[in-house]
Amino acid sequence: MKKINKLSFILFLMIFFSKTTIQAQGLETNKLGSIFPEDIKWSSFPAFPKSAGLSVLIGDPTKAGLYTVRVKVPAGLKLEPHVHPEDRIYTVISGVFYIGIGDKFEDSKLKAYPPGSVLVLPANTPHFHWAKSGDYITQVTAIGPLGISYLDAKDDPRNKKD
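Structure (tokenized):
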């Protein structure tokens, strides 16, 4: 099982670095800096459906080290079961963040987190999201590199042809 996880992660990194178009704006962690809401730059992220957005706030999520990103998901969008190799701290910025724990998307497992909520998600915890009641924005803080592996390859937007 561990060999499969390591192989999946290495494959992810190869795809991630070859296709990622994360717009760099991340503040350095060792210098005073700030970003105002109106200055946040959103970009697409190959591991998300095209309608979702990602913004790098602090650090560089493609490298080892602390990073903070925001994820913007439009109403109705579902992110199928997936895992991340890094421990994550989610803070809900706006909207309601619905997340379920498990390797199968089940409405009954979704839990609603309103703005201001904080959630710790340990590495390799299978989970899924749904923008069930409207758009939401979450802020994710972790130690990179950022990774995402869908449990079913057909759910991975990187595997879909336009």
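The longest strand covers residues 65-73. The mean pLDDT is 88.
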